[in-house]
Amino acid sequence: MKGCYYCDRDEGFRELLFEVCELRASRVFLCKDQTLAGRCTIMYKDHYEEIFEIPKAERDLYMDDVCLLAETINELFHPDKINYGIYGDECRHVHYTICPKYKGKLGWGKPFVLFPDPAERIYLTDEEYEERINLLRTALLRKSGKAQS
Ligand SMILES: [Zn+2]
Predict the structure, then answer these.
(1) 101 Cα to the center of ligand 1, angstroms
(2) What is the CATH number of the domain that holds 102?
(3) Which of 5, 28, 59, 75 has its CA 20 to 30 A from that of 45?
(4) pLDDT tens digits along 49-95
(5) Ligand 1 midpoint to CA 93 (Å)
(6) Is residue 88 part of a domain?
């Protein structure tokens, strides 16, 4: 849908969310904000604004993708808990933020912090983002059976 942040994925989007891969019913992005290591978002492949509007068979595939991503983040980054967020008052396209939480770190024991204080945010170098994206992509595609070679 034109004018939708997740459908358009314009330059501003691509500066904050780095595409990892497509899964069966979704696209996965690594968040530029890596204050909590492994934080990703996963959008439903088509434009829906409420999860209950997605036909059940497709929604089931999407939930499988959400679980696959959460399991992969758990294996790669070893958080103490994973938080799942769907808000979207402004950015309405169905997407989860999958936020790994770590004891003693930002937001532990509370809902995860959507926009950490800029002074607290951890950003990586281009090489570190590339490495993290490749790590996630390789694991996700292998686990989803979509891996090449
Ligand atoms: Zn959209």
Answers:
(1) 27
(2) 3.30.428.10
(3) 75
(4) 999 999 999 999 999 999 999 999 999 999 999 999 999 999 999 99
(5) 4
(6) yes
